[in-house]
Amino acid sequence: MITHIDTAAWATAEYSAPPGACITYDQETQVTIAAEPLPAPAAPPLVVASEHVVETWDTLADLVCCDGAYPELRQVQGHCPGGDPYRVEYHLGFCTHLREHGQLEVVYDFDREALGAAAASNFAGRLFGPDEQPWIGVQANLRAPGCLRFEALDLARGEVFVDERCHGDDLAGALGPLDLDPTATLAASCAGPAYVCEGEDSWDPEQCTTWPDGQVYPAPVAPPEDGLPAGETSGESPAVESEGGCSAQGRPRLPALVMLGLVWRRRVRR
Question: Rounded to whole angstroms, how far apart are CA atoms 99 and 117?
């Protein structure tokens, strides 16, 4: 059996990827038909596991920087090229995190040992979140307490069995954005003041404020176009032109060319 997975259309619809930026896959799957009979229709037993995870994200909005660091999204190549919103890079200075994020990872599965191989293969499941949107696969990452609905489809008979339960009430204060205090880290790593900036794909040096007091942070002074600091020269003398003659570095002016022509003609006549 070959399954057509239209990842290109999915990436365009869900993540606004340009049409044609992603590749669509055909996945080949082997199907085995068992000869043993199925048990009577019934809701399958489930195994539901959950784990509380706290992690930092390398996003532009979560960073505070100093000493000339202006992070930008790292460009990733592959089937869907573009900026990775969870991977940043910068070449100068220092950055650290303003917050971390807590989430409850909830994973659903059929109790395959209790069902047996034939009965377990007869079920397919899908998971819906608190907003009634389907999750990809059977794992939900909750950043706030919420209720999930798991639907088990009996493939042979077309019946749907629904399991609804709520998660995370005992972790309400440990889910979602959790503020950090980077004061000590910044003091140990920075020579200048700390700042935060706005920007979608990269920090905009023109839209920065100091952290934590929120005063306007001046943008860095860009070097002149020739790459030399302001007020300095390359050491070469500029072209100096004289009346009726040639400069050491410039092209001959028109009167000089005319005079040279006349001298040459007089020499020929002699």
Answer: 45
Token output for 173: 């204060």
Among 10-14, 42-46, 212-216, where is mean pLDDT lowest? Answer: 10-14
How many CA within 13 A on the CB side of residue 60?
18
pTM: 0.65
Contact predicate 110/239, CB 8 Å:
no
pLDDT of 119 above 70: yes
Q: What is the pLDDT of residues 174-203, one digit of tens each?
A: 999 999 999 999 999 999 999 999 998 899
Which residues on neighbouring strands pair with residue 194, listed in sequence order? 66
Question: What is the Cα–Cα distance from 73 to 26, expressed in whole angstroms?
Answer: 31
DSSP the chain: -EEEE-HHHHHHHHH-PPTTSS--EEEE-------SPPPPS-PPPEEEEEEEEEE----GGGEEEETT---EEEEE-SSS-EEEEEEEE-SSSEEEESEEEEEEEEEEEE-HHHH-HHHHHTEEEEEE-TTSPBPSTTEEEESS-EEEEEEEEETTT--EEEEEEEE-GGGGGGSEEEE---HHHHHHH-SS-EEEE--SSB--TTSEEETTT-PBPPPPPPPPTTSPPTT---SPPPP---TTS--SSSPPPHHHHHHHHHHHHHHHH-
Q: Are 92 and 69 in contact (CB under 8 A)?
A: yes
C-alpha neighbours within 13 Å on the C-beta side of residue 224: 8
Q: Distance (Å, rounded) from C-alpha 197 to C-alpha 217?
A: 9
d(CA 147, CA 131): 9
pLDDT band at 224 (very low <50, low <70, confident <90, very high): low
